[in-house]
Amino acid sequence: MSYITAKNLSLGYDGKVIQKGVSFEIEKGDYLCIVGENGSGKSTLMKTLLGLQPLLGGEIIFGDDLSKNEIGYLPQQTLVQRDFPASVAEIVLSGCQGRMGMRPFYGKEEKRLAKANMERMQITNLAKRCYRELSGGQQQKVLLARALCATQKILLLDEPVSGLDPMITTSMYEQVKQLNEEGVTIIMISHDISAALKYASHILHINQKTFFGTKSEYMESALGKYFLEMEGGNEA
């Protein structure tokens, strides 16, 4: 059974529907990029999958022994969050909270997991640094390590390269690709269709007409061809 099956979703907030008829399936090991214009409902979809916003219609089914608390999430950062006065180690360790149950303190297993994920993101040398003193790229690596403490199964990433310079952006994309190759299923919101087609296995394009399929199917679709031409024209 698929990790996530979404059937004819209606998405929105405060009871107001902003997108209808969204359907897709996520299999173990997939790399799905969600693309579309601003305001089309990409972030709303991600928050709905996480249970942070109510589903206004349709059905979301979790399968293959996946539960909501096994989903790692890297949201878009606000200015307040970027200025958070905690150490890198404390922030990464906080990603373990979902696995602790009623225990009030972190145990050896949580500390081992946080250390392993800092090593995985190559940020062990930053462990004692204050988060707000880091560069944007370093902060995103910290948040990615934190998200990995919540799960080894699936990560939801909401425009993780937003505001980063081109070199750091490429490094972040390559890091996420590596995680996918190690078996972590990826769902990423991206404003960059060309990057989505480089890294993703599947595309969900949310627009007036919604498309879901493999990236090769997307490139052959009328919607995909139109937006690729638009993006090519903008680059020119």
Can you characterise this structure?
The structure is a single chain. By secondary structure, this protein is α/β, with parallel strands linked by helices. It has two domains: 1-66 and 153-235, P-loop containing nucleotide triphosphate hydrolases (Rossmann fold, 3-Layer(aba) Sandwich); 77-152, no CATH class. The protein is 38% helix and 23% strand. The protein is built from nine helices and nine strands. A six-stranded mixed sheet has the order 5-6-7-3-8-9, sandwiched between helices. A hairpin with a 5-residue loop joins β8 (202-205) and β9 (211-214). α4 crosses α5. It is globular and about 50 Å long. The mean pLDDT is 88.
Number of strands: 9
Rounded to an integer, what's the Rg over CA atoms? Answer: 18 Å
Report how far the terminal alpha carbons are from each other.
Answer: 44 Å
Q: What is the 3D shape?
A: globular
Write out the strand line-up for the largest beta sheet, numbering strands in chain order. Answer: 5-6-7-3-8-9
Tally of helical segments = 9
Biggest pleated-sheet summary: 6 strands, mixed
What's the helix-strand series?
EEEHEEHHHHEHEHEEHH
Assembly level: single chain
CATH class of the largest domain: Alpha Beta
